[in-house]
Amino acid sequence: MTMKLFDAHCHLQDPRILNKTPQLIATALDTGVVRFAVNGVSEKDWNLVKEMGESHQSVIPCFGLHPWFIEERTPNWFNTLKEFFQITPSAAVGEVGLDKGSHGKKIDFNDQVEVFQRQLELAKELNRPVSVHCVRAFGDLLEIMKSTGPFPAGVILHSFLGSAEMVPEFANLGAYFSFSGFLMSMKKEKATKMLKADFAGNRCT
């Protein structure tokens, strides 16, 4: 029996692979991946993500303004975002978040916080799951989530690299944790402690 898997975070609308997306989905389905959460990152790709969800039953569309792209947003971005959720009941919120990394530090952090908080509040209002990108800003993220949460529909902290001590606090707000290859950049002791905390609460995706 093939194990059923859920790709909780991907960008199948990426122009670099878009022409191969149908083939990628078909191959993944054959190997047991039954759902794909396709995360939009800016106003420019929300419609493409929506169309992908309509064309592929396995795709769960996600609409959000990623912190890297907030400077490109239009004055009407938030109303446009709400309209996408109104016409796409199955959609989740994402990819949204905060970034103080090498790329994110070029973008005004107060602006990032404002955009992120509005989307987080919308997710709670609509009771939609949220996919969160966070780089070197886990303290800020936790405070914002505390002020807005909890989130019964769930929050996925994509590529989590926060501390073990933060795990229970995030989990109490409705968070789940996913990991990427960046985990290998952490010190072994810190990574082990953090992973034990995640698995102990059965909050890994």
From TrEMBL:
Chain residues that bind a divalent metal cation 1: 9, 11, 95
Domain of life assignment: Eukaryota
Annotated residues for binding of a divalent metal cation 2: 133, 158
Any matching Pfam family: TatD_DNase
Keyword list, A-Z: Metal-binding
Annotated GO MF terms: hydrolase activity, acting on ester bonds; metal ion binding
Protein name in UniProt: TatD related DNase
Source organism per UniProt: Salix viminalis
